[in-house]
Design brief:
This protein is about 20% helix and about 35% strand. The chain has a 5-stranded antiparallel β-sheet with strand order 4-5-12-7-10, with no helix packed on it. Strands 15-22-21-17-18 form a 5-stranded mixed β-sheet, with no helix packed on it. A 5-stranded parallel β-sheet has the order 28-27-26-33-32. α1 runs parallel beside α2, α3 packs parallel to α4 and α5 runs parallel beside α7. The chain is globular. The protein starts with a strand and ends with a strand.
Length: about 625
């Protein structure tokens, strides 16, 4: 074992991953539902392959293979999959991995990317976190999308430990590692499960240059596999300077990583950036993002949004953007966040022009070059709920976007609220999209109810080291029936649009838990569901809440804030202070009455009540 790496045997741990071993007529090591069969000549290069066939959309069949795991070890699982035929373009063939304890209780799970393009073998792969201390075994799962019908083939599947370096990535709290003033924090990831991490003589320190030849150590703390240090920007010389993360054992060099930090002379020159308080700064002035998603932004929609208190929009159909539309948005005061997420080959919704990484980068470069100089642009929407398996590609794409456009940040939105830190390095601002109202079983294990809006926000803020990246949250402003395939199914679905009270509650849960922006999902889907709930009524619910938020915009932008203890996990509170003014928000994140004591005052709250004063 080297001093800098935890070397693991990269042996294949998945029995019969190539489907060649048989026990009589049964496939060795696999538990296969009737929708799966092993067939000669269907695998890669004419070998045996695992074939999935399903004609019933109500059937969700999963093939399983049990594997041994070791606590503290990270694993890679993957193989090859081919979509032969699917009933929907969005369907895919993929793998999943689950950890279990000794009693068979599920602990955690992760998904691979999916094979979607018919007739092509696609590499599908995922990576686990370090196996939990109570992990006794795991299962590799083979599946196709829920409600999918058709045929797919899998072959050459594997599960193996990952050879890990001791040091991971290094990050800086300042937007794109540059600032003019304020505090700046540095973080380094290390493998807390490696033998080196348990040595008593291990020392990990961030250090910054002082003068030409001197280095000054920063006070560095370590916790849960991350090292942290803080410095004032004034401690750096103007211009670019290296910041080293230095690791020694027994006083002898072991490993190091370097990140570069730039100190601006004078004000931050970038058109759009984030300051040390995570405020969005546009042309030198603070800006609180308050917007909606939509499919295609039109001048009429831009007028409607601005009249209703919104100041930004994220259109999925960014290919339909043009200068006249952007000029109109600028005229009425609406900022635009173009969608450029669909440039990853093999991913869901990938545009047809993209077939590999070079064409993906070329497509994104073209999209950015079209709009980056237009004053209506606020940020780039670069990822929407991508799986962890895409993180290396997302990080490469982030670096590309930083080179292409230093004047506008990226924003990603994820559903993996408990894994935000794994996505560090893929975004400038992040959000999560908790949609708890009558979710039609999309979260079958969830029992959190409306408090999901606040819980996910809190997890997201914690994931970015307690708020060292802006958090633009995405509350639910749609009816889950939109996922049904036909209008008849949508009209019959046992779901509904959130009420105005629920929208207000979810919004203030987000704000009270530290969100720096709010972008509701989704304007265009309110129109699709108009036969169920008139558009004007549905939109008015969202607009009324947005206007309430805008009424306190100055407090968010010019004041400071702090979370307040409530003594009740179902109640969240935050106080904003601006000069001699204060705004107190106390939110009951429960469908039941709750009581709490906030700043010495008792609050008796009705279900989902929001108290502002």
């Amino acid at each position: 074992m080297s001093a800098a790496c935890l070397l693991l045997c990269a042996a294949q741990l998945l029995a019969n991953g190539d489907m060649e071993a048989m026990v009589g007529k049964s496939v060795a090591a696999w538990r296969l539902p009737k929708e799966y069969s092993v067939e000669d000549g269907r695998g890669r290069d004419g070998s045996r392959g695992l074939v999935w066939r399903n004609a019933d959309p109500k059937t969700y069949a999963i093939a399983r293979n049990r594997v041994a795991v070791q606590p503290g070890v990270a694993y890679r699982f993957g193989g090859w999959a081919k979509a032969v035929s699917f009933g929907r373009d969005s369907d895919g063939a993929a793998l999943y991995f689950d950890f279990y304890d000794k009693n068979g209780k599920w602990i955690d799970g992760l998904c691979s990317n999916a094979a979607r393009k018919p007739g092509e073998w696609t590499k599908v792969e995922g990576k686990t976190d370090h196996a939990p201390e109570n992990a006794a075994y795991g299962e590799v799962l083979v599946f196709c999308s829920q409600k999918a019908v058709g045929e797919a083939v899998f072959d050459d599947l594997y599960f193996e430990p990952i050879e890990e370096e001791f040091l991971g990535d290094v990050w800086c709290s300042a937007y794109r590692n540059a600032a003019a003033e304020g505090k700046v924090r540095f973080y380094a990831e290390f493998n807390a499960f490696a033998p080196e991490a348990k040595r008593k003589d291990l020392r990990m320190t961030f250090r910054i240059p002082r003068g030409r030849f001197e280095w000054v150590d920063l006070r560095t703390e370590t916790k849960d596999g991350f090292a942290r240090a803080e410095a004032d920007v004034s401690e750096f010389r103007y211009g670019m300077a290296p910041v080293q993360f230095w690791v020694t054992t027994g006083g002898v060099y072991m490993a190091s990583k370097t990140v570069f930090f730039e100190r601006f002379r004078g004000a931050d020159p970038r058109k759009v950036h984030f300051d040390s308080r995570n405020r969005t700064i546009v042309d030198g002035k603070p800006f609180f993002p308050l917007g909606m998603y939509t499919s295609k932004v039109t001048p009429e929609d831009a007028d409607l949004l601005v009249r209703s208190g919104f100041n930004c929009v994220m259109p999925y159909w960014s290919w339909a953007l043009d200068k006249p539309v952007l000029d109109h948005c600028r005229k009425v005061g609406l900022k635009v966040i173009p969608n450029i997420k669909d440039g990853f080959a093999g991913e869901r919704y990938c545009v047809k022009e993209v077939v590999d990484e070079p064409t993906g980068e070329a497509w994104v470069s073209e999209q950015v070059s079209r709009f980056k100089d237009h004053p209506a642009i606020l940020a780039w929407y670069s990822c929407d709920e991508s799986e962890l398996s895409l993180v290396p590609r997302l990080r490469a794409r982030q670096r590309l976007l930083e080179r292409l456009d230093p004047n506008h940040p990226t924003w990603v939105v994820l559903y993996q609220a408990d894994r935000i830190r794994k996505y560090m390095g893929t975004f400038d601002a992040v959000g999560t999209d908790p949609y708890p109202i009558t979710d039609l079983g999309q979260y079958p294990k969830a029992t959190d109810g409306i408090r999901r809006a606040g819980d996910w926000t809190r997890q997201t803020v914690e994931g970015v080291f307690g708020g060292d990246r802006p958090v633009w949250q995405v509350p639910q402003a749609f009816d889950w029936a939109i996922i049904r395939g036909t209008e008849a199914e949508r009209l019959a679905a046992p779901s509904r649009m959130p009420t105005e009270e629920e929208l207000r509650n979810m919004t203030w849960q987000c704000l009270a838990n530290g969100a720096n922006g709010i972008v509701y999902y989704c304007l265009s889907e309110l129109r699709v569901m108009e036969k169920r709930l008139p558009f004007e009524e549905a939109f008015a619910r969202v607009a009324n809440v947005a206007k309430d938020v805008r009424a306190h915009e100055a407090m968010f932008l010019e004041g400071t804030s702090e979370p307040l203890a409530t003594g009740n996990p179902s109640v969240v509170a935050r106080r904003w202070t601006k000069g001699g003014q204060t705004l107190l928000a106390v939110v009951n994140a429960s469908e039941k009455p709750q009581s709490a004591v906030v700043a010495g005052e008792r609050f008796d709250l009705k279900p989902i009540a929001v108290v502002l004063r």
